[in-house]
Automatic annotation (TrEMBL):
The keyword NADP does not apply. It comes from the Bacteria. Coiled coil: none annotated. Keywords: DNA-binding, Transcription, Transcription regulation. The keyword Glycosyltransferase does not apply. It comes from Kitasatospora aureofaciens. GO terms for biological process: response to stress. Gene3D superfamilies: Winged helix-like DNA-binding domain superfamily/Winged helix DNA-binding domain. This is MarR family transcriptional regulator. Residues 1-122 form the HTH marR-type domain. GO terms for molecular function: DNA binding; DNA-binding transcription factor activity.
């Protein structure tokens, strides 16, 4: 499914985003006041690695840095309009890929698979925030 998703992105001539970028998009979409330190903790990587990924996304116009309202040393990270549009495209393409899977296994099996995976994730990661959308 991931390969099909990437193929659909490539058909649209999009930048070669990696899974870490997807995790970044999802996190920033749901955490409007996130800093690089927050994002690094979420990704489980160093602040330096996070800064590099953010700089790359910033160069592509997907992320911007804004002044922090209370900490003059920090900056808040935010998706730009282009970044939010990319996230919407990712959701649209994933829906297409899920539809292709449903065509193969049937909608009832797909729904059962979704329920089973959500049950498993809830049991294993009960104490963590989990995204159920792909991160490409």
């Amino acid at each position: 499914m991931t390969d099909r998703f990437h193929a659909l992105l490539a058909e649209r001539g999009r930048e070669p985003l990696r899974p870490a970028h997807g995790y970044t998009f999802r996190y920033l979409a749901s955490h409007p006041h996130a800093t690089t330190v927050d994002l690094a903790a979420h990704l489980g990587v160093t602040k330096q690695a996070t800064s590099k990924a953010v700089a790359e996304l910033e160069d592509w116009g997907y992320v911007e840095r804004r002044p922090h309202t209370t900490d003059k040393r920090a900056q808040v990270l935010a998706l730009t309009t282009r970044g939010r549009e990319y996230l919407e495209l990712a959701d649209e393409l994933w829906t297409t890929v899920e539809g292709q899977l449903a065509d193969v296994i049937g909608t009832e099996r797909l729904a059962a698979l979704d329920r089973d995976l959500r049950t498993y994730i809830a049991a294993v990661h009960a104490d963590q925030e989990v995204s159920f959308r792909p991160v490409w």
